[in-house]
């Protein structure tokens, strides 16, 4: 009996290990949060630290995913993405009644700017905004409804079956084998003009950038493709760039909100 229980525990533990995913994945969201922290104004940093009780943006960056298992927050699930056909635009395509990533970001900004919002409301929407800006810069979050943003686009990662969304969310970042702090410290050195270009524009413009990348990804990938070292070589710089842009732009929004 004792051996049976031990064997059962081993099977359950192994299954959990094999099926667990870093739900950008956890590392990617933390990279974006860590980079944003470095671009905050002193005033914004002080106000945010007070709201988060001293926690960093990296620490709270996965809150939006962490609450998915709680039915009380189920209504926020559609806020993590926006889907529309490649031959259409966000403005022209009918909007979901449940909301989408753009609506979610705008709601968070409105709540944080509203002086009548409670402290609890501000903390919640701040955490969600940190997560959503990360999602905004993951190209497959600006995807197609028919394959659920690449979740039903089956490919192989080296010798393992997976989907295109997971490759971009997690697999390439994991393969880089660096912590979120290491990745955040090893971002590209930007000229003044490059930084200003990244900081310019609005949320919808940043979404359209990700949308253009999403189109390129679909144009260069077919269902069933075996993706490995060459895919990493071709796309890892795009991943790193999107993480960096996400962090810088998150700081732009937070500096605007908190001064």
TrEMBL record:
Q: Give the signal peptide, or none.
A: 1-20
Which InterPro entries does its entry note? Answer: PLipase_C/P1_nuclease_dom_sf, S1/P1nuclease
Keyword presence, Signal: yes
Q: Which UniProt keywords apply?
A: Disulfide bond, Endonuclease, Glycoprotein, Hydrolase, Metal-binding, Nuclease, Signal
GO BP annotations of the record are: DNA catabolic process
Q: Which GO terms describe its molecular function?
A: endonuclease activity; hydrolase activity, acting on ester bonds; metal ion binding; nucleic acid binding
Specify whether Metal-binding is a keyword of the entry. yes
Top-level lineage group:
Bacteria
> Which residue ranges does UniProt annotate as crossing the membrane?
none
- List the protein's name: S1/P1 nuclease
């Amino acid at each position: 009996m004792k051996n049976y229980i031990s064997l059962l525990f081993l099977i359950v533990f192994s299954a959990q290990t094999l099926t667990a995913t870093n739900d950008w994945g956890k590392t990617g969201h933390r990279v974006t949060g860590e980079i944003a922290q470095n671009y905050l104004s002193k005033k914004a940093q002080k106000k945010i630290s007070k709201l988060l009780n001293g926690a960093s943006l990296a620490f709270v960056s996965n809150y939006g995913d962490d609450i998915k298992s709680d039915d009380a927050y189920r209504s926020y699930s559609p806020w993590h993405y926006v889907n529309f056909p490649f031959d259409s635009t966000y403005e022209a395509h009918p909007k979901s009644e449940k909301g989408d990533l753009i609506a979610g970001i705008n709601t968070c900004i409105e709540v944080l700017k509203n002086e009548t919002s409670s402290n609890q409301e501000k903390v919640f929407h701040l955490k969600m905004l940190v997560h959503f800006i990360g999602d905004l810069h993951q190209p497959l979050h600006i995807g197609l409804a028919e394959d659920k943003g690449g979740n039903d686009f089956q490919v192989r990662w080296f010798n393992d079956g997976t989907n295109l969304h997971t490759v971009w969310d997690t697999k390439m970042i994991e393969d880089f084998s660096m912590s979120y702090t290491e990745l955040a410290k090893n971002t590209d050195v930007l000229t003044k003009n490059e930084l200003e270009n990244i900081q310019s524009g609005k949320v919808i413009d940043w979404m359209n950038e990700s949308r253009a990348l999403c189109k390129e990804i679909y144009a260069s990938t077919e269902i069933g493709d075996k993706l490995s070292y060459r895919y990493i070589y071709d796309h890892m710089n795009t991943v790193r760039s999107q993480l960096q842009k996400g962090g810088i732009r998150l700081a732009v929004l937070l500096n605007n909100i908190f001064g």
